[in-house]
Amino acid sequence: MTVEGAAGEAYEGVLLEEPTTADLRAKVTQAWREFASALAAVLPGLQPGSYVDLTLDPTASGTGTAVYSVSIRVLEDGVVEALAVGNAALPQEFRMDRAAVADLVALGWSPPGVLAGSGDSFGLRSSQDKATQLATVVSRTLRDVYGAPHPAFLVYLVHDDEDEPIDASPLGTARHEPSIDLDDLDALGDGTALDRALAATAEDLVPLEDRVRTVVATMSKTTIDQLQVDADGDIGIRAGSAMVFVRVRDNPPLVDVFSPILTEVEPTEQLYVKLSELTNRMPIGRLYCAQDTVWASIPVFGRNFQSVHLMLAVQVMTGLADELDDRLHGEFGGKRFFGEGDKPAAPKEKGGDDGHRPGMYL
């Protein structure tokens, strides 16, 4: 399917819907208009082999390990292909329902596997001379389907086949992922500018996993070799009766600080309401229930990694997990990680695994 199809024609020339409510909504709509216009202006000037990667920042949006992204690639003869993340790449609790999938198809996206090379992603083929329509579809996908509340929640990178950055005009209020060339260091001089440059460059020289382990070891006042690391590479940190794990994900770069607050708990409406109320009061992170396990999660964006962000996430999670497992256990039952003698809720057949391996901890 192409943007030139019926769905694409329906959106031609219309960037976003007009607001019908308060002034705040009008400002948000205007921000999306500006983002779409900027994207439409950038695409025609890109050479073959260029990419525009757009990602909903999970640390800002609260989507945890669910990373919603759209990647645009410029091919020969002005052809443009775009890929939008599909359910296969999303955690179970964040997968799109049938209505959302239908919305993607209505916007012009082909289902995963239909467009050659799309794999598990939704695919779309257009051309540089139809950049306005393509930018409209991408904007509506990020806003209406993936739920990005504002373009400021987006992180973007324009690069070539070798992942070298390409200079491009700003995409509205979306945040650019900065990079630095080692050859430019000599021009920066001494002082804080050079320090920042070296720190940014370290992202390419030192793997994210090594930097994360260094931070956790420092906080734990131990060495990297003495960290408690399981077979999956997750770092374990005991917090009273709770256990906190630090997991590094490669694509996209993300550090997830999470804890199985309770296992073998019976999901009820009261539990979901309680978790929603607690999440709304948390400064960062979220609480959710998957199958029979209550999880707490605080994601840290891996690109432009800042050790202070990980330190804050670990500090918050260790205190939160140790307090909440006791409080929620007293109200809803289940089993704490180190809660000897805890009696689980009524037994039930376990469902699938959402990636955190519930039930294997105890």
From TrEMBL:
Q: Which SUPFAM superfamilies match?
A: Type III secretory system chaperone-like
Start and end residues of each TY-Chap N-terminal domain: 30-154
Q: Which InterPro entries match?
A: TY-Chap_M, TY-Chap_N
> Which residue range or ranges hold the TY-Chap central domain?
209-339
Q: Where is this region: Disordered?
A: 335-362
Source organism's superkingdom? Answer: Bacteria
* One Pfam family named in its UniProt record: TY-Chap3
Under what name is this protein listed? YbjN domain-containing protein
Task: Specify the species.
Answer: Actinoplanes couchii
